[in-house]
């Protein structure tokens, strides 16, 4: 009988059609296995195998086997078992898994199992040699192989997860770095926008004195003034560097247009500042009756976001004619005596090294001779100590002009009511100022460092790494108005207004917002005291200069070494 695959048809084992020849052949095979010590249990036959030397026995069981024959063999014994119908009901439906041990082997099929129990035997089973089981399995091989594959799979899964985590961490790190860089760029852009907004608000505010204007009118005036200011700056550059084909008269015309623009900005700032908040603090060291107003740009910004500071200081009833006061102030600036005196005064107060130098050129000097108005250019610098004990030089160049303009003095004063003392002071000021229109002296100072750098008019020594150049605008001016004569002596008197719009973070006056502005967005007392002291020092120097001029005495007027410009 052929039993290849350890499977035999059920027709051989039970029912009326059972073949005695087949049973006989199986019996012979059984006898051989019993001789080797194997035991066989089959159903449906009333015979028992003769015990072999190994003590094995074969016995035929009840006729209930339908489809199963399993063959299994161990290292020390072999066994053949025919399973019952309940045990091998799904035998033919497919093999699921096979496992083997030292003394026991089993085959699992779709819910049915066939188990072969081994007995001690040194002779291998011949039935296994004759008919190979479909699910042949070596001792211990299934468990070892499964454990190894599971371990390998776990290692591969762990490595895959680790690699994915590493890539995810690198991606997050790169994203955070990009976001950090982008955030820094946006903060820088925001600072630039705030500075530009502050400058535009300043420029528009200086034009409001033209009367009741709407947005379109403001834009039109702003564009016109910007064009005039650019022409003024370019005229200074061209006067020193322009090609010979440009006529001297053209340079003079451009310079005059620029002078008019600078004067208009100061007049507009004086008009606009009448609506600024009034500061209640007046330093005890102030030697004159004084009114103080201030303004921050951009409007409504927090202290750390403020880019420009506007300050208005006014004092009245100086015992000097308005025109004489204006001429004395210009003389101090033209000879740089006032700048040098103010420099020494500030250095004595805070110990910061400062310097004032004249900015000159042959072409520039020839153009100035043909102007009706006065114009002077000077370089100013300060040395500041850094946190690492090194020094940084902050430098800026200023153009200063002087002119007489017919204005309405009453337009420069506030009309609102405030505290009683402040209201009385304003009333006294308005009463003391001449009615109608009058000739007023104006001294205007504007900064144009950026334009000179673009024109390559700065010396190489002034653009070194330890020098920081001013890259935003500064407007400073004085308007001197005639006042009513002294009621007792009849001597002429004048009223002085000083206005300034300066950027934050350059010179000692306002190195930082923390230095000049309190947490409540008000002027700091120390900063205000210094500004008041400087302004009063200049006013008193002007009066002293006029007195000396009238007396016929000549004070020593020291001048600094001029700045040499590149030849054209």
Automatic annotation (TrEMBL):
One of its GO terms (molecular function) is DNA-binding transcription factor activity. It comes from the Eukaryota. It holds the Pfam family bZIP_2. Residues 97-108, 559-568 have a biased composition (Polar residues). Residues 173-185 have a biased composition (Basic and acidic residues). Residues 151-208 form the BZIP domain. Residues 97-185, 549-568 are annotated as: Disordered. CDD domains: bZIP (cd14686). Residues 112-122 have a biased composition (Low complexity). Residues 123-133 have a biased composition (Basic residues). This is BZIP domain-containing protein. It comes from Hondaea fermentalgiana. The lineage of its organism: Eukaryota, Sar, Stramenopiles, Bigyra, Labyrinthulomycetes.
């Amino acid at each position: 009988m052929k039993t290849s695959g350890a499977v035999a048809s059920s027709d051989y084992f039970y029912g009326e059609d059972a073949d005695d020849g087949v049973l006989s052949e199986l019996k012979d095979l059984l006898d051989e296995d019993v001789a080797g010590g194997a035991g066989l249990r089959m159903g449906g036959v009333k015979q028992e195998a003769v015990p072999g030397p190994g003590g094995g026995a074969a016995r035929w069981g009840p006729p209930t086997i339908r489809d199963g024959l399993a063959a299994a063999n161990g290292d020390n014994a072999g066994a053949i078992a025919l399973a019952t119908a309940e045990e091998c009901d799904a035998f033919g439906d497919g093999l699921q898994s096979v496992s083997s041990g030292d003394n026991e082997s089993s085959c699992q099929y779709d819910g049915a199992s066939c188990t072969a129990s081994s007995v001690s035997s040194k002779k291998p089973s011949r039935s296994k040699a004759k008919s190979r089981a479909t699910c042949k399995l070596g001792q211990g091989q299934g468990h070892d192989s499964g454990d190894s594959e599971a371990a390998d799979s776990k290692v591969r899964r762990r490595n895959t997860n680790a690699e994915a985590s590493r890539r995810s961490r690198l991606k997050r790190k790169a994203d955070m770095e990009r976001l950090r860089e982008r955030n820094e760029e946006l903060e820088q852009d925001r600072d630039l926008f705030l500075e530009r907004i502050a400058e535009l608000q300043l420029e528009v505010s200086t034009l409001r004195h033209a009367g009741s204007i709407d947005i379109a009118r403001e834009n039109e005036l702003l564009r016109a003034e910007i064009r005039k200011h650019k022409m003024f700056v370019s005229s200074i550059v061209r006067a020193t560097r322009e090609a010979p084909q440009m006529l001297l008269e053209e340079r003079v015309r451009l310079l005059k247009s620029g002078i008019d623009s600078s004067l208009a900005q100061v007049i507009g700032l004086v008009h606009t500042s009448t609506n600024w908040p009034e500061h209640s603090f007046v330093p005890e060291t102030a030697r004159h009756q004084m009114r103080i107003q201030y303004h921050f740009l951009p409007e409504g910004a927090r202290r750390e976001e403020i880019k420009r500071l506007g300050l208005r200081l006014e004092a009245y009833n100086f015992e000097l004619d308005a025109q004489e006061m204006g001429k004395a102030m210009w003389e101090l600036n033209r000879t740089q005596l006032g700048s040098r005196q103010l420099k020494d005064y500030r250095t004595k107060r805070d110990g910061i090294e400062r310097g004032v130098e004249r900015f000159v050129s042959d072409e520039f000097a020839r153009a100035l001779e043909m102007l009706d108005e006065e114009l002077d250019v000077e370089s100013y610098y300060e040395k500041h100590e850094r946190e690492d004990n090194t020094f940084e030089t902050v430098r800026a160049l200023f153009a200063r002009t002087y002119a007489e303009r017919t204005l309405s003095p009453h337009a420069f004063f506030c009309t609102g009511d405030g505290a009683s003392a402040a209201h009385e002071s304003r009333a006294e000021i308005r009463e003391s100022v001449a009615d109608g229109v009058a000739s007023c002296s104006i001294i205007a100072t504007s900064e144009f460092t950026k334009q000179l750098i673009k024109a390559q008019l700065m010396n190489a020594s002034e653009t070194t790494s330890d020098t920081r150049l001013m890259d935003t605008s500064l407007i400073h001016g004085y308007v001197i108005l005639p006042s009513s004569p002294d009621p007792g002596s009849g001597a002429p008197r004048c009223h002085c207004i000083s206005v300034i719009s300066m950027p934050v973070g350059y010179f000692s006056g306002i190195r930082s917002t923390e230095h000049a502005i309190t947490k409540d967005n008000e002027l700091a007392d120390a900063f205000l005291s210094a500004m008041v002291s400087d302004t009063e020092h200049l006013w008193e120097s002007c009066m002293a200069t006029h007195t000396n001029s009238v007396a016929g005495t000549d004070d020593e007027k020291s001048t600094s070494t001029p700045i040499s410009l590149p030849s054209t």
